Amino acid sequence: MVYNFNPGPAVVPAAALREAAANLVDFRGQGMSIVEMSHRGQVYEEIHQQAIDRCLRLYGLGPEFTVLLLQGGASLQFAMVPMNLLRPGQSADYISTGHWSQKAVEEVGLVGRTCRLAGSSEAADFSYIPAQAELDLDAQAAYLHLTTNNTIYGTQFQALPRSGGVPIVADMSSDLLSRPLPWDGIGLAYGGAQKNAGIAGLTVVIARREWLDRASVEGVPTVMRYATHTKSNSLYNTPPVFAIYLFGLVLQWIEAEGGLAGIDARNQHKAGLVYAAIDASAGFYRGHARPDSRSLMNLTFKLPDAALDARFCSQAEKAGLIGLKGHRSVGGVRASLYNALDPAGCQALAEFMRDFARQHA
Amino acid sequence: MVYNFNPGPAVVPAAALREAAANLVDFRGQGMSIVEMSHRGQVYEEIHQQAIDRCLRLYGLGPEFTVLLLQGGASLQFAMVPMNLLRPGQSADYISTGHWSQKAVEEVGLVGRTCRLAGSSEAADFSYIPAQAELDLDAQAAYLHLTTNNTIYGTQFQALPRSGGVPIVADMSSDLLSRPLPWDGIGLAYGGAQKNAGIAGLTVVIARREWLDRASVEGVPTVMRYATHTKSNSLYNTPPVFAIYLFGLVLQWIEAEGGLAGIDARNQHKAGLVYAAIDASAGFYRGHARPDSRSLMNLTFKLPDAALDARFCSQAEKAGLIGLKGHRSVGGVRASLYNALDPAGCQALAEFMRDFARQHA
């Protein structure tokens, strides 16, 4: 028995993996695997549509929104967003809260479009999320791009900024489907499935249909046009069948956990256990994130020195707490507590932290 | 028990599926699934590297070649190839042998590059592969693009054309790893894994390292540059872990079947059984492909009328022969005999064809 704190690919609900394993050779008695069936056949099409419908339902979204099931990760979205949604001559606003925000900014220039920085916490080592008053928003921007959760630094937007009618484009790679969201300001959200919603190889895009339909596609390769995928319901080319099947199983599990409200309560409880261990350590554990910007997904902290960081991670691993090493650019410890991580894992980590601090403080 | 003639996603070696199913919940006793592990950890990195090495070994390729494990399907390659390998001012040659060749041609213009048609069988309903003498090759072309196997029409290049030193770019979506190939003329080959080499969600690119390193990347999004993936050994962003794991298992199975020479002999035998049933039917079954262009992968034929085509497919399905309906653009019957289809399935299909012809001729 281990607890999996990997930052992604990451823990998947055991019930979903067990069901997929049981069906991998012979899918529901059909004599073949789901991965061996046509993506244009009835069995797969139902799985595909149910995943889309369930995703919309979990977020409480109506038919004005669409869910696209794509490939290529957030890295491809960094390019697709400006290529589709930012015309030459227009400008978009980007808020920089970490490494991945910066990657998103770089791609805008690479594809020959223009953007400006509407806010940044780089000077403070990306330790916080800029407050509304710190943002410098362009009312004429084509969209406002932000990263809802910063995996490396352990910060998260507690609420989305007020964008004054400019549609928000949100990279939700590491907190997709982890909490309810107010969608009135959002034009498009994207994220890989491999942290909170399944396995690597599937990119989920949730967007306002009407906005995508108005998008400019001149010079954009067919497979990189959102319109290609809205028109074909994400069946333009062969979709990543198994990753979508597993996505559907994870969405069922989220429903059974009480939907996004239930998952959010569970995630708050889990993160609370670990943050309490940090806060009660009398400074032995120092969080990277400012308390008002703390992430429920990735909890980053340091011990008094790097040697202790390393000892902490290796002893934790021996105790069955896997994947705690911080990202190389920040160092220290990072505990990723995605949806599927059992609360007992957070309890075990908090206890381990208290014991370790007692022994080494 | 069924035999799976699906055109893709398609049959996967049962041994590979069984091993993946057995390891999906707990990978080799590690306490977690392969899909829950970091793609930067040792366990996954070994799987990743072994798949790459095994692919090169099966094709007998040395270190001047590289294997990239990407996402997005052939559709994304249609754009990546000209964006990376065709500079403005240059021209590439394209041979058009079907629907997918035409899609590849269209993308060249969409991304602002130039190509010309070096040969086409469109006027003959894509029923054959143009011979060397029919090609009009530009000795200055940046590359010569062709589709080695045409899934919809059931034609296949029996040998690659002589390109006079111009590097060949081959879309091998439906005959990847199905036969040995002479690589001296090939600069780059690509294909999805979901027909002969695993499951949907993985695109395999095999290319000359040095050619990719010289590629122009101005204005190309980072994730669409071949150089990005050669430099990072296809670990620039999170790879489709499970599809790559299964790809590795399928490659092991190909090795156990005697490598590509063994697989080729098996595929020749399989296709021979079905073509013999066509040829012995006194015209009851009419092949779409000209005999000199026949595919070993997709065998397309028609019965005397469309009503009989439909009856054939529905009776075959009742007999456990699944997925035989022809593509909507051609009609008739299509039997896809990819690597993993058991020869017994071809035997069963040939017998069914003889019985059906006897009853309906």
Walkthrough of the structure:
Two copies of one chain form a homodimer. Chain A is α/β, with parallel strands linked by helices. Chain A has two domains: 112 residues, Aspartate Aminotransferase, domain 1 (Alpha-Beta Complex); 243 residues, Aspartate Aminotransferase, domain 2, CATH 3.40.640. The first copy, chain A, is built from ten helices and 14 strands. In chain A, the strands form four sheets. The first copy, chain A, has a seven-stranded mixed beta sheet with strand order 2-10-9-8-5-3-4, sandwiched between helices. At the A-B interface, helix 1, helix 3, helix 4 and helix 7 of A face helix 1, helix 3, helix 4 and helix 7 of B.
Task: List the SSEs and their pairings.
2 copies of one chain form a homodimer.
Chain A: E1 3-4, H1 14-23, H2 42-58, E2 65-70, H3 73-85, E3 92-96, H4 99-110, E4 115-120, E5 144-147, E6 149-150, E7 155-156, E8 168-171, E9 186-192, E10 203-208, H5 209-213, H6 226-231, H7 241-256, H8 259-279, E11 286-287, E12 298-302, H9 306-318, E13 321-322, E14 333-336, H10 343-360
Parallel strand pairs in A: 1-13, 3-4, 3-5, 5-8, 8-9
Antiparallel strand pairs in A: 2-10, 6-7, 9-10, 11-12, 12-14
